[in-house]
Structure formats: C-alpha cells, structure tokens
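STRUCTURE REQUEST FORM
Protein name: Tetratricopeptide repeat protein
Source organism: Dyella ginsengisoli
Requested output: structure tokens
Priority: standard
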Amino acid sequence: MNAATRPFRRSRKAAKAAPKPYAAVLQRAIQAHQAGDLDAAERLYGEVLDMQVAQPDALHFLGVLCHQRGRSDEALVLIGSALKITPRHPDAHNNLGNVHKECGRLADAERCYRRALECGPGHYQALSNLAVVLEAQERLDEAFEVYTKLLQQAPGYAHGHYRLGLFLRNHAQNEEHLEQSAECFRQAFRCDDRNVRALEGVGIALYMLGRHEAAAEVYRDWLVREPDNPVPRHMLASCGAAEAPPRAADDYVRDVFDGFADSFDEQLLNNLGYRAPEVLVDFLHEVLPATPAALDVLDAGCGTGLCAPLLRERARRLVGVDLSGGMVDKARARGGYDTLEVAELTAWLGARHDEFDLVISADTLVYFGELRPVLGAAAGALRPGGWVGFTLEAIDGEGELAELTSSGRYRHSRAYVEHVLMASGFDDITIRADTLRREAGKPVLGWVVRARRVSTTAVG
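Status: completed
Returned output:
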C-alpha cells in the first residue's frame, strides 16, 4: 500500500483539542477513508470544514484523498494549508512529499521528507520514502545509507527490508549484492509472514544466482503454505520446475498487478528506467496521421495509464482495458481516457470488430507466451489499414522462440513475432531492438513492434 494512503495518525495534541461538534464527524470520515469509501469520506471531511474552517486534520486528510482521486494540485493546496496551521506535523510533511514524488517532482519530495524527519526523527515512513527518492535520482550511495539507517532505526519494519532487497536487486553489480538481496527478502518475510511478495523476491534472486533448485524449493514451500495462490504456481514454472503455460493465468496477472498498483510508477519509472510507452508511441508516430483527434485508439493493458498523455492528442476516442482493477483505478485517477474497462484482453478484443484505428500495448504481451490468439483478436478489432504497436522482451536467435523467464515474463524471438503477425493478418511489419528498462543493474533488451492490418484479407 502506498504511504500516501496511510495518513491517519493524529497528534495527541490535536485529538485533545478537537471540539466535540466535529470530532465524531472527523472520526467517521477517517473510517470511511480507510475503508476505501472515498465519496463518503470527502463529503464528511467537507462537513468538518463547514463546522470548523481550517481544521488541520480535515485539510490534511482531504488533501490525501484528492491526490488519490487524481486532483494532485488541489492536494498540494490542502496539505500546505494544514501545515501553515500545524507546521511541525511530520505525517503531513511526509504526505506532501508523497504527492510530489508521485507527480515526478523528486527534489520537492526530498525536501518534504527531510522536513518530516526534522519534525519527527523517528518517522520511519519518511525515512523509507527519502531512500526511494534518492534512489530515483540515482544517488545510490546516499540511498543505501538511508536504507541502512532505516533498518537500524526500525529493525522489525518488514517493508524496509523488502525495499532494500529490491534496491540491491535493481542495482546489483555482483553476486554478493544478489545474495544480500535474497537475505533482505528473507528477513522481510520473517518480520511479516503476510508479505508473500518477499518469497517471490527470494526465489528470483536465487534463480539469478544460478541456484535454480533452491528457487524452485522456495516456490514449492510457498505452495504448501498457500495452495490456491497463483503466484508461486506461475513462478514455479518460471524457474523451469513445472510446465510453462501458454500465457500467464488471469488470477496470477490480477493478483500481481492489483498488489503492484500503488508502487508501479515509482518502481518502473524511477527505479528501473522504464521507457516503453515513450519509445513505442514515438515509433508509431512515424506512421500515424498527424491530424489531431483523428483516431479511435485502444490502450490494451493500460496499467496505470502511462500511455494516455502520449496518445490523447491524436485520439478522437481513447479506450483503456486492463485485467487489474487496481491498475485501472490508477489510470482513472491519472485521466485522459474516454472509457476504461477491467477485462481479460484476448476475450475483450475478440468481441470487437473493425472498431479501432490503433491498438497499442506497452509491456503487456510479455505475459503471453503464445501470441497468435491475442494478435489475431487485435487484428479483428482493428479497421483495415489500422496499426498495432507493442513491446516485448527479446530472445536472440534465428528460430521461432518463446520462453518463460525467471521474472515471470515471457521473451520472444524476432522470427517468432514476424511469423505470428503475418499469420494473424498483418503486413508492413517493422521490429526494432531497444532497451526498455533495467533489471539487476543491466539493460533489458526488448522489441518495439508495429504492423498494419491488411486491407484485403480476412483476419481473426
């Protein structure tokens, strides 16, 4: 869960000073906010501010809520107003930092987290967030020092161990860093055995170290603990200890990305140098008409909506579809789409015919091993002459290859992609190699692909 959604520690002074007429309403607002009922919470915070103008807790928490709803400029004003009244409130400084961080203003976020720590030296969430923004600014030595200080200060903080594990894996320069990463993930799980993502981290680190059977044993133990959990089932196949499915199961994708939604942008954009949306859209702009608002566009696997601002100017209608409801919620808060739907991609595409001029899919088809069903459905959803564009992780080699990797994602060869596109009813196929992000401190080679639906041949 994102730190910006956990702001509900009121100072004792504020609690004692709260006049009874609005204290009960404020408590109901907080409870609704924590329960995810944002409509009720916003209405109740408004009632508090009607009763007591400039009540700082209501301003602060309403600001957090506005940011959750994509109204980040309003959030900055509200939390800033709260801090004018209670200038030494570390939670408010921390949450103001979260707004800046999630809007990409890393230097502003850093200043807020440092101010939070001045006001509350023991505020370990602010310390954790400071490490994140230092990492995002590629000040890696400073970030490591802050992570170390965090765990000295809060040795039982499971999320701190988990974040340090990710840091070490993301920026690993040798096997020792991967060993340390695995141990951080183990410690995160010891501190909180509900944090099963830490087990996934252990398994991936062990596989990257070449300890394949040890990785498989982690996933087998996890399956014994949680036999219905789709994540260890998929990851067991990813390390070669079970048969690889033709594509990642719906429950696996949904589980992973619902849990990843709050930190997706932070991890990929800030810490892994993720650039697939920009690279893909620039590649497509070479062949798309420059006329504004001319295209019906589908963002297939829209995630948190990173493609929306890049596509909006060209789109007459912009539709986003994703299997993860958590990701769609983030895309809705970001804005830019005319329609957003939660659905499995192949089936959703298969129900549309000659509806779109462009289908774009950034970093989604990496969860498909067999591409023919989804690309055939995409061809049917496109109008004749329409374009598809997508990214994949690349395998070098001459044959038609597709394989599941230890990350849980698939890689494909150029020859395989070309064959499937031609068989699915596309021509004018162009495939360009590029680096789309980093993993374990190394660039991940990918394919950036575009192809046009043929105008004269039936597809499907």
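Reviewer notes: The two ends are 40 Å apart (CA to CA). The longest strand covers residues 382-395.
Form closed.
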